[in-house]
Specification:
The protein has 106 residues and is mainly alpha-helical. The chain has three helices and no strands. It is 75% helix and 0% strand. Keywords: Membrane, Transmembrane, Transmembrane helix.
Amino acid sequence: MMNRFFIAAAAVLSSGIFAYSYWKEWLGIKWKNQTPNLFPEEEIAPYFHKSEEIYMMVLIIFAMIFSLIFIGAVVSIIQKKWGWVFFCFVMSMTAILAVMINGAIK
C-alpha cells in the first residue's frame, strides 16, 4: 500500500513539475513577451540556445511529453491501474534523462 502511494506521488509530482515549468516558460515567451534566455555566442550553452525557434520547439516538445505522462499517471491512479502508474513513473524518469541528455548536446 505504501509503495503504491510513493510511486503514484513520484509519477505525478515529477511529471507535473516538469510539465508546469516547460509550459510556464513557453507561454511566457509566446504570449507574455518575456525574453528567452539564449546564449548563442557561448560554447558551453546547449545547441537549442542558438536560436529562439529551436528553443521554443524544444520547450513545447518537452511540455507535451511531460503533460502526457502527467495525465496518464493521474488517470491511472483514478482507475487504480498500478502497473500503468509505475509505467508512467518510469516514463517520467526516462523523460528527465532525455532532458539531461538534450541539455548536454552542444
